[in-house]
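Structure first, sequence second, as always.
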């Protein structure tokens, strides 16, 4: 099967490339390198012994994107390309609406024109807003979190409406919880440009000495130790989730959570990281981050029942692999 992965050189995309290519899929990547690095192609080659076909294309440029559909007989699309920094989306909402919505509409127009009827979309647990965990796919989505979250809700809606109009079209929306970890080789992982917004890439840079300490955003939540609780899930498990979604997809629209079903607090994650990797993580408790919620973890029964997908990797695997990637990445940066 020939699959186009937009945003395919990013953190999730690169791991999905590896899993799909390993199973014999032919993978085409469209990525404009806005938050990823071209070196990832060589890393995938080191892992798999082959590279995906790469296009430096912005999904917002319909004509450029169409080139890919004219050259390759695309059979499925995994759509990850999009901006994802929550705070930036509040400061610059138009950038987020413009980019994330336009890119998706362009892709769908091309899918319609070229008869591509298999589509997987990268959504987020953020669409649930502040509801009581475990979060279930049947719960309503909650508007009003932030423009980034709104784009995810809008795109889910666009995909559902399009699937109603085209009975041949199959789409699976995957709502990720908090992907961390890295490929066990340490060759690919999360390497955001600039100061990381998310916990794990910040934490590994503290472990590394790049930042003096971790800011922990609040210890007065109603949780086990007062710090925020999230459902951390290994990126390789998430990547495998995309493969089974592609394989088991039926016509019509469906939504699945990808998480472990377990909640971990910030302090528990820091303690696990220190214990497994034998490194110090200095931290300071600071004010809550605006917009954060106390607890979010998944109900994962639906993916288990209908996709036979379950996260296999433990929190220990996640912190070990995240740190291994950071260490190898340091070496690469010195070369
Ligand atoms: C996790 C926990 C923080 C950084 C967001 C988006 C979501 C998804 C992932 C993706 C929280 C705490 C964090 C730090 C901290 N989007 N924290 N110090 O907020 O659950 O989810 O990113 O691409 O849609 O909403 O993830 O990793 O930012 O935070 O204490 O420096 O760590 O308060 O409890 P979050 P996160």
């Amino acid at each position: 099967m020939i699959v186009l992965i937009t945003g395919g050189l990013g953190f999730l995309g690169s791991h999905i490339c590896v899993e799909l290519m390993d199973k014999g899929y032919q993978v085409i990547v469209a990525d404009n390198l806005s938050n990823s690095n071209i070196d990832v192609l060589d890393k995938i080659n080191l892992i798999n012994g082959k590279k995906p076909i790469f296009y430096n294309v912005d999904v917002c440029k319909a004509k450029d994107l169409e080139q890919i559909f004219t050259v390759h007989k695309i059979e499925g699309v995994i759509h990850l390309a999009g901006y994802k920094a929550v705070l930036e989306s509040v400061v610059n909402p138009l950038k987020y609406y413009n980019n994330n919505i336009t890119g998706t509409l362009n892709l769908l127009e091309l899918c319609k024109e070229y008869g591509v009827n298999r589509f997987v979309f990268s959504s987020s647990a953020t669409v649930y807003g502040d509801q009581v965990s475990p979060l279930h796919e049947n719960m309503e989505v909650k508007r009003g979190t932030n423009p980034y979250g709104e784009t995810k809700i809008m795109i889910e809606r666009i995909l559902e409406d399009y699937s109603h109009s085209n009975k041949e079209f199959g789409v699976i929306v995957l709502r990720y919880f908090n992907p961390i970890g890295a490929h066990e080789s340490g060759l690919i992982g999360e390497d955001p440009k600039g100061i990381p917004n998310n916990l794990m890439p910040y934490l590994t840079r503290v472990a590394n000495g790049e930042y003096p300490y971790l800011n922990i955003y609040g210890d007065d939540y109603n949780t086990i130790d007062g710090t925020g609780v999230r459902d951390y899930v290994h990126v390789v498990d998430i990547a495998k989730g995309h493969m089974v979604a592609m394989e088991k997809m039926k016509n019509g629209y469906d939504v699945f959570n990808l998480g472990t079903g377990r909640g971990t607090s910030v302090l528990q994650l820091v303690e696990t990281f220190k214990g497994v990797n034998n490194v110090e993580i200095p931290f300071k408790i600071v004010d809550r981050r605006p917009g954060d919620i106390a607890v979010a973890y998944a109900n994962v029964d639906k993916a288990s029942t209908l996709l036979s997908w379950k996260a296999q990797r433990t929190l220990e695997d996640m912190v070990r692999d995240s740190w291994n990637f950071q260490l190898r990445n340091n070496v690469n940066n010195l070369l």
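Margin note: The CA atoms of residues 273 and 319 lie 5 Å apart.
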